[in-house]
Write a structure and sequence with these properties.
The chain is an alpha+beta fold. The protein has one domain: Trna Endonuclease, Chain: A, domain 1 (3-Layer(aba) Sandwich), CATH 3.40.1350.10. The protein has a five-stranded mixed β-sheet with strand order 1-2-3-4-5. It starts with a helix and ends with a strand.
Length: 123
Amino acid sequence: MEGKQKTRTLGAYGESLAAEFLLRHGFQILTRNFRVRGAELDIIARKENALYFVEVKTRSGNSYGAPESAIHYYKQRHMQFAAQIFLAKNAQYADGEMHFSSLAVEVDVHTRRARMRFFRDIG
């Protein structure tokens, strides 16, 4: 498999694992892959009266560092921008508590087992 395609496949697999993880922990998934003008939110979820804008980062090794270290300042700004657009289109969610979160997924490509870490508030 070519490099970019392999990365996309691993990323999609990680996002699916992340969605399952959130569901198992009592979250309701509102949408996945919300895209708007150059920005994307991987998962938008709700738990109780709180809204979570979740960035999922998946790694199959540590050569690029921990998954959560890839969420830099500009990515956080893009998340905030996309969240504003989402809330403008979905005003019913605007009154609750909001969190910009990250879910780090580390996958062992040989066993396909994953280790996940949820960070409730990033930035």
